[in-house]
């Protein structure tokens, strides 16, 4: 006799204990420390912080450890923590022109003020597995900088001018947004998005968006689905100061430094009867060293400006409802994976209908067979008569 | 209890009553009040990231957290049952974060959070039924754009939906929507009742309890206040009808409840039992007995 299954509670608790056990793996292998993750998996930490919308390398490392290295799960853990944190205000806009640059490349000028700084990059490495790494040999020490670095030769101290402002001096590129810097900062985690969403909100969604999804969308614009003729104006990575102006003080105080990667795309030019032609821009910003994300984001940002710039909008990357509703990995993974939950009530409803439709179909078929059988008998008769 | 799980309990104890902070609850309550004032209208709200995944009841959990008080008695069901894994998980969440009393008895509960079913027992005044909603927009699969569907609702332009139902009839001879069957609320908004089987639609009409719907991922809350007219869309020559089962529940003999089909083996043996486990248990306690196992569908 069938008895309804009970004991879901014990099963869940046991599943969680087994999960913790699996996460630890073989206990004879030393346990991963958060410092090891933070130091040796820094790009993963950067991605989790970027998509988790929380700059905290320590918590991100913990999330990565707890998630057994699953990026989306780690982002989930960080977001669920972030949602409980109090908001005490918005920081001053960061000044990436004053960035302590670790890497800075421009694809549109051979050389430029501040120079090309390759920094730590996978670019130009040959992707050959390094077996000395498997053997645990220490890497050679990094090269020392020459005494006089290009940065120090700049006129205005340590500032490294952004390529967009170099082009902007001549009016060759549109200015970087005319938004009021004192306008309230939109926060899509505190207000539901309503369409059309402004650019600040779109950039926020893209920054939080899944790297793979944003990458694929950006790629699609390069293959003709919303082409924007992009040039990598500049990609820079390094630390910037974060400042906050408390109401009672009235002047900004430093909170610390955050590592970011910024990408400025220079895109196809536009003009009108009133405005002379000039290049347009796409913008990307991510925590840590996240070049792929920043570049893809800049491509999609520019594609999403199609309507504003009077371009035809037909490609997925130009459609803000499509992009913004689907770029979040947590929303996507939650809804895709919820298919694991029981759906037998709805399935039963479909079964009931399908059985009924099949029964009716069988009845109709039988009736038609009978009818056509009779009809063909009728039809055969005159033929037989004619034959006689 | 082990030291580790004690630490975990203490960690949760650091959260506000029912997990959400009071500011967030106030924001959700405002959305609920608006939803109650405009029955069937989808109110956007600033859905929070919850410690469970989107699509697993975050909307329902937020609504429940916002309406729950210390004296409430909570019941959580999924597919009509209290012991399905996600129902267990959500019930435990509120046991831990709110410390409220929980029950499996529909009659004893003041707040019932549900996924995919409405309890068989008639709900009474003072009870709140909270639905978990995956896709709140009834027109979504006819029109994917939110900007467009909001305009259609504003104009009460529901022709698309009627055409869809008509095409079902033309193709299959029946309306082929078996769950999430669209309803018209209070003569105005067409609403998605969440993926409950259409069997449950009539229970929504003139219901004495307050019905609240939370969609976390899609960031919408909507409501059906007590004793509101809820009409399932249909046609004069194809009136709305609910699923019927040609046998009673094998355990309690109920002939008027929604049944789960349980596959017993790979030789076609099946058993049909109440999906509402409390309804079934209550009936059996009252002495009702079903026919037991029998050969199922031909």
UniProtKB/TrEMBL annotation, chain A:
GO biological processes: organic phosphonate metabolic process
Species for this entry: Roseomonas acroporae
Keyword Lyase: yes
Lineage summary: Bacteria, Pseudomonadati, Pseudomonadota, Alphaproteobacteria, Acetobacterales
InterPro entries for this protein: PhnI (IPR008773)
Name listed for the protein in its UniProt record: Carbon-phosphorus lyase complex subunit PhnI
Keywords linked to the UniProt accession: Lyase
Domain of life: Bacteria
UniProt key word Lyase: yes
A molecular function (GO) term: lyase activity
UniProtKB/TrEMBL annotation, chain B:
Function summary: Catalyzes the breakage of the C-P bond in alpha-D-ribose 1-methylphosphonate 5-phosphate (PRPn) forming alpha-D-ribose.
Source species: Roseomonas acroporae
Family listed: Belongs to the PhnJ family.
One family name in Pfam for this protein: PhnJ
Entries under InterPro entries matching the protein: PhnJ (IPR010306)
Keyword Ion transport belongs to the record: no
Enzymatic class: lyase
MF terms in GO: 4 iron, 4 sulfur cluster binding; alpha-D-ribose 1-methylphosphonate 5-phosphate C-P-lyase activity; metal ion binding
Catalytic reaction equation(s): alpha-D-ribose 1-methylphosphonate 5-phosphate + AH2 + S-adenosyl-L-methionine = alpha-D-ribose 1,2-cyclic phosphate 5-phosphate + methane + 5'-deoxyadenosine + L-methionine + A + H(+)
Enzyme Commission number(s) from the entry: 4.7.1.1
Keyword terms, alphabetized: 4Fe-4S, Iron, Iron-sulfur, Lyase, Metal-binding, S-adenosyl-L-methionine
Protein name: Alpha-D-ribose 1-methylphosphonate 5-phosphate C-P lyase
Transmembrane among keywords: no
Domain of life: Bacteria
Taxonomic placement: Bacteria, Pseudomonadati, Pseudomonadota, Alphaproteobacteria, Acetobacterales
């Amino acid at each position: 006799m069938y008895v309804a299954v009970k004991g879901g509670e014990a099963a869940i608790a046991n599943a969680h204990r087994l999960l913790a056990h699996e996460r630890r793996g073989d206990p004879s292998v030393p346990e991963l420390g958060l410092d090891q993750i933070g130091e040796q998996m820094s790009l993963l930490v950067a991605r989790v912080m970027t998509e988790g919308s929380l700059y905290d390398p320590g918590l991100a490392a913990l999330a990565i450890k707890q998630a057994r290295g699953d990026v989306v799960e780690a982002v989930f853990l960080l977001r669920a923590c972030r949602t409980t944190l109090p908001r005490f205000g918005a920081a001053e806009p960061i000044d990436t022109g004053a960035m302590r640059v670790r890497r800075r490349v421009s694809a549109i000028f051979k050389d430029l003020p501040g120079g090309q700084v390759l920094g730590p990059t996978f670019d130009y490495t040959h992707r050959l597995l390094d077996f000395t790494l498997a053997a645990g040999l220490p890497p050679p020490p990094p090269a020392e900088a020459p005494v006089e670095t290009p940065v120090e030769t700049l006129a205005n101290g340590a500032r490294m001018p952004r390529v967009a402002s170099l082009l902007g001096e001549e009016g060759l590129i549109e200015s970087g947004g005319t938004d009021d810097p004192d306008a309230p900062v939109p926060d899509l985690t505190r207000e539901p998005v309503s369409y059309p969403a402004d650019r600040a909100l779109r950039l926020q969604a893209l920054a939080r968006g899944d790297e793979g999804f944003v990458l694929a969308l950006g790629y699609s614009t390069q293959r003709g689905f919303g082409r924007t003729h992009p040039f990598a104006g500049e990609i820079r990575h390094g630390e910037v100061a974060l400042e906050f102006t408390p109401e009672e003080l009235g002047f900004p105080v430093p909170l610390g430094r955050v590592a970011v990667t910024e990408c400025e795309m220079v895109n196809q030019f536009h003009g009108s009867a009133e405005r002379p032609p000039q290049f347009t821009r796409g913008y990307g910003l991510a925590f840590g060293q996240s070049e792929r994300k920043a570049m893809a984001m800049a491509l999609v940002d520019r594609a999403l400006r199609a309507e504003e710039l009077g371009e035809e909008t037909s490609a997925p990357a130009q459609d803000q409802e499509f992009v913004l509703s689907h770029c979040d990995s947590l929303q996507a993974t939650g809804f895709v994976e919820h298919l694991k939950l029981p759906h037998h009530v709805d399935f039963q409803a479909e079964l009931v209908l399908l059985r009924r439709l099949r029964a009716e179909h069988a009845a109709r078929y039988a009736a038609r067979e009978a009818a056509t059988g009779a009809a063909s008998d009728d039809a055969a008769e005159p033929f037989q008569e004619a034959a006689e | 209890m082990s030291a580790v799980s004690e630490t975990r309990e203490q960690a949760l104890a650091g959260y506000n009553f029912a997990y959400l902070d009071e500011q967030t609850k106030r924001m959700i309550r405002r959305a609920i009040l608006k939803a109650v004032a405009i029955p069937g209208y989808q109110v956007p709200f600033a859905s929070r990231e919850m410690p469970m995944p989107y699509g697993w009841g975050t909307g329902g959990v937020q609504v429940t957290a916002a309406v729950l008080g210390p004296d409430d008695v909570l019941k959580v069901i999924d597919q009509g049952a209290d012991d399905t894994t996600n129902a267990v998980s959500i019930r435990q969440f509120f046991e831990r974060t709110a410390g409220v009393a929980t029950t499996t008895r529909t009659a004893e509960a003041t707040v019932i959070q549900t996924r995919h079913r409405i309890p068989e027992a008639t709900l009474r005044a003072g009870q709140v039924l909270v639905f978990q909603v995956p896709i709140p927009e009834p027109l979504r699969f006819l029109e994917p754009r939110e900007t467009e569907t909001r305009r259609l609702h504003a104009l009460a332009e529901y022709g698309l939906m009627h055409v869809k139902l008509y095409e079902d009839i033309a193709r299959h001879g029946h309306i082929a929507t078996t769950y999430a069957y669209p309803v018209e609320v209070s003569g105005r908004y067409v609403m998605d009742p969440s993926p409950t089987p259409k069997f449950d639609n009539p229970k929504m009409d003139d219901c004495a309890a307050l019905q609240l719907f939370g969609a976390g991922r899609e960031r919408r809350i909507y409501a059906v206040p007590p004793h509101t007219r809820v009409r399932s869309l249909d046609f004069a020559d194809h009136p709305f009808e609910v699923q019927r089962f040609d046998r009673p529940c094998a355990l309690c003999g109920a002939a008027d409840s929604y049944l789960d089909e349980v596959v017993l083996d790979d030789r076609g043996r099946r058993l049909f039992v109440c999906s509402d486990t409390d309804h079934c248990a209550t009936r059996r306690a009252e002495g009702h007995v079903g026919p037991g196992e029998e050969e199922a569908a031909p």
